[in-house]
Amino acid sequence: MEQTAEKRHSWTQLSDGYLSKTPVFQFLLVSLIFPLWGAAASLNDILITQFKTVFQLNDAATAFVQSAFYGGYFLIAIPASMIIKKNSYKFAIMTGLIFYIIGCATFFPASHVATYSMFLVAIFAIAVGLSFLETSCDTYSSMLGPKQYATIRLNFSQTLVPLGDIAGILLGKYLIFGSVGNLSEKMSTMHGAARLAYGEQMLQMTLRPYKYILIVLLVMLVIFALVPMPRAKATAETSVDSEVTEEEKPSLRETVAYLWHNKNFKKGVFTQLIYAGLQTTVWSFTIRLALNLNHNITDSAASTFMIYSYVAWFVGKLVANFFMSRFSITGTLTGFSLLGVVSLIVTFTVPNMTAVYAAIMTSFFFGPEWPTIYTHTLDQVKEKKYTETAGAFIVMALIGGAIVPALQGVVSDLTGSMQFSFIVPALCYLYITVYFFLEYRFEKKHPEDLQEH
TM segments (predicted)? Predict the structure, then answer.
């Protein structure tokens, strides 16, 4: 039925899962999902600050916010891919939106119960939804059109993520922190019932941004329910009347066995894990670096550096996309990565605020590296019947966002220098540079295997 319905549209479903042309409206609709997970991720930084003060948590306890967030991604990616495999990308996206809505809605009872664990449940529910969305949208965006433009499509969609990050940090900065000032200073003089009452009042402030996010999510859910979407899945022709049917679904065990013996795929997943950790740790420690180097700025003022970082990331994506549309993708990102290493060397060696601006500049060089590694790794899966689960394994690499920051924290504690600990992301970026350089060199030697243009 759906195959017949697709023939009424301008696109044609090809046997490898790609389409003959990109359905512009459907592609833009999928792309608008991308900033939604950016907003949720950047709001976590605001929540950590809020919860640390209200619940009187130590740094280890506040880390549970990121554990709940990345744990949701890690645990749900494979189940999400199995749902995509059995149903459709559209169904998985709608499932993700529903979980995201449930997570946001859970903030309302959580603010009344006023326990840290209840908020963690809400954050985990949001992460479950985001895992569905990212597992489906990253792959779906790359499949919505001709194969040779898959990386360009995903890079375009991913370019919208920083806009979500900026929106999230601004919502938190003005709706949660806006009328409070420095929360830790205010609550440091409060005790007993007065402190408890004021803390509960502050928890109510966390609801404000999620009210607006809920409205957007509900509108997106309705639109997705009404708009016909391509299946964008690998097909096979049967011997009877050359009828086109969806390719037989392999078992999870068969898929894991195939991927485990795919050396290039495993290298790509590991690289994505390193990149996810690199990006997360630079952003996690930039505010603290600023406070460490300049004792005259407040926590609220220091959070502005994150806005600068997200803006730099967005501009970097645009600049990189310009170069990648004219030159080699892997060659462009080899240069970007090398300049990122230089920025981080400045960050951990120059003992003044120049180091903070160098850390912000690093975000510029992040550019579109996540989606490029994603599509390059997915390209290593030659048997497209394994695509959905392969995409889930790449999304699971986000667990690097929990591992590398912890490693940088250990280096900071051992050396007694927050600034020197930026050597950890510098080494990560050096690995990424080598990865892109080797990919670029391989493509120069084997131009017949080039899939990016």
Answer: 24-43, 63-84, 91-108, 114-133, 154-177, 210-227, 273-291, 297-315, 327-348, 354-374, 386-407, 419-438
